[in-house]
């Protein structure tokens, strides 16, 4: 980021119809991070949005990638990472369009990563009203629920960090293969965290470093109880839990997650409150379809892992 260091940071943002947020949140940050790269992957929505992104990229000297369809979050980040690495980036800051972080906070994350290579680093993330949106989370291995670390107790858990704001060095990102393309949206950061740990890497929540996330800016990325979520959120959260199970769990844990799949799917739908079922009965159909598709996909993946005779 400066002439005194060999590190080159790339800020990678995946856009989907959020050019106004990029103008609000990214323009100032990219200007303040002198010597860094800004890479924007525009998951296609329409011609007008693409033209707005192209104009922003030209005006602010951003690197832009223009896939001809919506690749989803993780695959979009992978595309942006490839563009960044081709230009010599040594570190990636993965950032949601609706997330805000000060340049000083980015530098602090980069310093932490430089001093302790081989880890994922994330800030404590606040909502605009100052309440906590993310301050660490655990994946409970017995049932596949995601819970705050305060509920850990003696349970078997594995920590994970959200992809809304995440810093990683290029060596580790490449070594673990980046994000898994199979997820499209949601759980891809849980999966990445798991593979980092499995590869001997570390996860570090930097509680003294903060970012702000306005989950109303784009589709919602984290539950806020009583507030209805999008069909996209419900579908992929329910489906991808089973995808993760098929990819990473032992047979006993996989069977346990399968047994609890219906209960966890119902809990996911209830994040949006019960009134949504009266306003939008299709939500139940979305949940059922996600559960069906997740189970079928998981069964195919597990069958493919079995030795052939």
Give a brief rundown of this model.
With 309 residues, this protein is α/β, with parallel strands linked by helices. The chain has helices at 19-32, 47-60, 73-86, 103-115, 170-176, 188-198, 231-248, 251-259, 261-270, 275-279, 282-305, and strands at 9-15, 37-42, 63-65, 91-95, 99-100, 119-126, 132-134, 137-140, 146-147, 157-160, 165-169, 202-213.
Count of DSSP-assigned helices: 11
The CATH architecture of the largest domain is: Alpha-Beta Complex
Helix-strand string:
EHEHEHEEHEEEEEEHHEHHHHH
Q: Which topology of the largest domain does CATH recognise?
A: Spore Coat Polysaccharide Biosynthesis Protein SpsA, Chain A
Major β-sheet profile: 9 strands, mixed
CATH superfamily of the largest domain: Spore Coat Polysaccharide Biosynthesis Protein SpsA, Chain A
Q: Using the alpha-carbon principal axes, give the shape.
A: globular
Mean pLDDT: 92
Radius of gyration: 19 Å
Integer tally of domains: 2
The helix/strand class is alpha/beta
Distance between the termini: 55 Å
* Uncertain segments: 219-225
Determine the fraction of residues in helical runs and give it as a percent range. 40-55%
Share in β-strands = 15-25%
Look at the structure and give the CATH class of the largest domain: Alpha Beta
By DSSP, the count of extended strands is 12
